[in-house]
Amino acid sequence: MWAKGENRDTVMLELEAALDRDHHFSDGHVISSMCTKPLDIAAEAHGMFLESNLGNAGLYPGTLDLEKQVIDAISQLLNGPADTAGGVVSGGTEANITALWIARNITGKKKVIFPRSAHFSFHKACDILAMESVMVSLTDDFTMDLDEVARHLDGDVAAVVGIAGTTELGAVDDIRGISEMLPENVFLHVDAAFGGFVLPFLRELGHDVPDFDLSIFGVSSIAADPHKMGMSTVPSGALLVRNREWIRTIHKDAPYLDMIGQLSALSGTRCSAAVAASYAAMRSLGRDGYTRIVEDCMKVTRHALASAERLGLEPVIEPIMNILCLRVPDPKKVQKMLDQRGWKVSVAQNPSSLRLVMMPHVTMGSIDDLFAELEIVLGEL
């Protein structure tokens, strides 16, 4: 701790210096992130609600009402039945941990089956919750191998996890197929942290989108992140469960709070400004606004694919969403060389490939500039 406080101008200069060292979405050079610059109205709303803490919801009835409206809106988007409930959380990791926590408490079992394409948060969840992780292989289209799932189903399984928009490739597992093979006492969680704010709008645009959400009766819970394609501020995630009574299985009383019965979440103190930011983004955009954003991202994705093909590069899979993975020689070396030129791209591991995410801050001009640099880099390998 510093011995004495500094004046505002000094502190702000130090903060600005730190900020200048960060990478910014507005530069158009960050093509590795699943987050983007939030809408101005979302950032403004976030600032308005900085002191809100839904961990003590009795003090914040207005914020609590906004959370209910956000969850209701996401439930409508993801075809939730009337009894759907949930809450705004910090992101997909918290949503996934909480979903498996509920599954464990409902079933009294500890085995979790998920694909090798699943987010690392499921390994975290199993570690924290003392659950047994069973990873299954992927098919040729990089989706969960249902035959292998069937071989692992036994009386010890608490939950099966399907992914609607894998982090690396944007692939969508056969959620309906998974649902149809599961016994009634097995919890089915869908991680749609990225896909939840993409797939419904692709459907609006006429894309062939498989069922993946709460319209499938066997889906028990689903995660979707407003801070990704939802255009909200970080951190903002959401978890929805089919039956509101299930949430009570993780409830803990805290008699000292102003509203007893609200601690049915992993976090105690909750960053509730993101509730207001998510409300502002969703309320201002509506379905039409999100559909336009997704359409624009897909146009940029197709432009990136065409640019890759001109360089003789093949995609790992045809882009399903605004994620494109390219087969390049030595992807890690290519990533490092592009990084030295000021470009932030990532590397997928399964299979090893160069990964590009075309978020709303990525323009066709950004893609043209990137591929001009990529052509030089490939020539230097």
What does this structure look like?
This protein has 381 residues and is α/β, with parallel strands linked by helices. It folds into two domains: 125 residues, Aspartate Aminotransferase, domain 1; 243 residues, Type I PLP-dependent aspartate aminotransferase-like (Major domain) (Aspartate Aminotransferase, domain 2, 3-Layer(aba) Sandwich). 39% of the residues lie in helices and 14% in strands. It is built from eleven helices and eleven strands. Strands 1-7-6-5-4-2-3 form a seven-stranded mixed β-sheet, with helices on both faces. Strand 5, helix 8 and strand 6 form a beta-alpha-beta unit. Helix 3 packs parallel to helix 9 and helix 4 crosses helix 5. The chain is globular and about 60 Å long. 48% of the residues are buried. The model has no long low-confidence stretch (mean pLDDT 95).
Which characteristics define this entry?
four-stranded antiparallel β-sheet; 381 residues; 11 helices; globular; Aspartate Aminotransferase, domain 2; Aspartate Aminotransferase, domain 1; seven-stranded mixed β-sheet; 14% strand; alpha/beta; single chain
List the helices and strands and how they pair.
Elements lengths: L7 H14 L18 H9 L12 H17 L7 E5 L2 H16 L3 E5 L5 H9 L2 E5 L9 H7 L4 E7 L11 H7 L5 E5 L7 H6 L16 E4 L12 E5 L31 H38 L3 E2 L7 E5 L3 H10 L5 E4 L2 E6 L6 H17 L1
Parallel strand pairs: 2-3, 2-4, 4-5, 5-6
Antiparallel strand pairs: 1-7, 6-7, 8-9, 9-11, 10-11
